[in-house]
Amino acid sequence: MLADADALARRAAELVAERARAAVRRDGRFTFAVSGGRTPWAMLALLADEGMPWPETAIYQVDERVAPAGDPDRNLTRLLASLPAGTGVTVREMPVERDDLEAAAREYERVLPPAFDLVHLGLGPDGHTASLLPDDPVLDVRDRAVAVTRPYQGRRRMTLTYPALERAREILWLVSGADKADALRRLRSSDRSTPAGRVPSQNALVLADAAAAAL
Prior knowledge:
Helix content is 29%, strand content 17%. By secondary structure, the chain is α/β, with parallel strands linked by helices. The strands form two sheets. It has a six-stranded parallel β-sheet, with helices on one face. A three-stranded antiparallel β-sheet has the order 3-7-6.
């Protein structure tokens, strides 16, 4: 448990950089999938101080809202703004501006690595993670690594599916805020009635601030 959101972001940045350097020593590259939500942006900005092997790093999107380029709803807009400038990092963006979203999802699947070195996941108060949303048919997709959801909070979304998450070498959960306390408790108990609880807990690390860990 970390004291607050700032401490959470700092520890997460340290951990990501550690994993990145280890992956580059092992394989010559680091593949990192990043979710949206409110937790990752401070972490990404702090990576500037952590000795990241940027030229050997490829960042992928875990999920993205279907919206025009530059839209403030887009996770990519926040991701690009949070990354340090001039790093040479590769960013693989989800092609959500295409007319044929199902074909776009298949296209994105083709550029994914066989297994991510690290996947960052956040947690919604309703227990969703990535854009694996309560009662959405995407929860039951097993034959694709990328799928498109029904509308949720006014937007359809493209998301990695459970099979893609299950192949990750490691998952890093970042959970911040008192509104996440119940969802965090259910995550830690692997409560499969929530989308987050269906993500395998082996090779997963949960970092939470004091507010989220209050229960």
